[in-house]
């Protein structure tokens, strides 16, 4: 279903996207969302944070909140293994105080070109942080609610935590 602002506009035939692997599935995000993949680092613990907030990491002279998407959506804290990486995500909103945040991922993201005909919505109920469950060329994935993740990180930073 097209949103009103897209009616009359020509949509691209395919969208460059990334599959970000998690301990319990994978996320499908637009390629512009990912700024960089960095090696796993131990976050600095933060006092009185929600379970999904692992702490803060240092990246390019900035402190970024590091989240566990698995915990955000009600799952268990993943075991941090040697194949874990940190995905630095660009904030698509206009919060200049939090232009980036970070998320633990498993392994290296995989580039996929998604055509509308290959994307099938699934009927799985969505948890916090999930926009929709999909199947992309037969692979299950979740499209995350990126504005909600950004808002949760921004609210945590301001001290009004979303648990």
From TrEMBL:
SUPFAM superfamilies: CheW-like. It holds the Pfam family CheW. PROSITE patterns: CHEW (PS50851). Residues 14-155 form the CheW-like domain. InterPro entries: CheW-like_dom_sf, CheW-lke_dom. This is CheW-like domain-containing protein.
């Amino acid at each position: 279903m097209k949103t009103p602002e897209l009616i009359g506009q020509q949509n691209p035939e395919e969208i460059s996207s990334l599959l970000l692997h998690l301990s319990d599935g994978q996320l499908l995000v637009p390629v512009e969302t990912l700024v960089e993949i960095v090696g796993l680092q131990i976050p600095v613990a933060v006092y009185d944070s929600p379970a999904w907030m692992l702490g803060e990491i240092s990246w390019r002279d900035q402190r970024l909140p590091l989240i566990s998407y698995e915990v955000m959506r009600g799952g268990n804290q993943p075991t941090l293994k040697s194949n874990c990486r940190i995905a630095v995500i660009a904030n698509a909103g206009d919060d200049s105080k939090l232009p980036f945040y970070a998320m633990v991922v498993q392994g290296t993201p995989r580039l996929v070109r998604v055509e509308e005909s290959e994307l099938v919505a699934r009927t799985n109920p969505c948890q916090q942080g999930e926009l929709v469950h999909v199947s992309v060329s037969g692979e299950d994935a979740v499209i995350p609610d990126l504005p909600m993740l950004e808002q949760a990180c921004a609210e945590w930073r301001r001290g009004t935590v979303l648990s």
